Amino acid sequence: MNREDLILLADKITRPDSEASDEYSRNIDLMTAEMNRKMSNLPDLEELIGPDNLQSMIDNHSNHGRFMHSLFTNFKPEVLVDTVIWVMRAYQARGFHKKYWEVQLKTWTDIFKKHLSPHAYASISPVYYFILKNLNTFEFLANQESIPTDQKNYH
User: Is the pTM of this model over 0.85?
Assistant: First the structure.
């Protein structure tokens, strides 16, 4: 599977509705704080993120919430795919391991179940499950050459 295949699959994701996106936005600070607590307390954290990367992980979680809210309000499959590839590439270069993404995404979904209404969870979770299901492909693409700039036309 390649980038274009992932974009076609991402285009089939049911878009989160505005009610769910707003609820996500209202709760993201609380959910991010819980995410940071849970991840920071993992006994194998250094194996997941490498040495001296705690602040990078915390920054990633904060950026993640803002990006996902933006994506939920204006869903573009190519932005989702290219951003996940870029983020994986950038953080792997800092020492983060593939397993971090799996643990992180599963932890986010657990937190959403706790803090979001069933409707918001059902609306938002397909995006997370898409990334989880395709994590191996994202990792493969993250380790390839950079995405050509002519493929980044998001108009």
Answer: yes
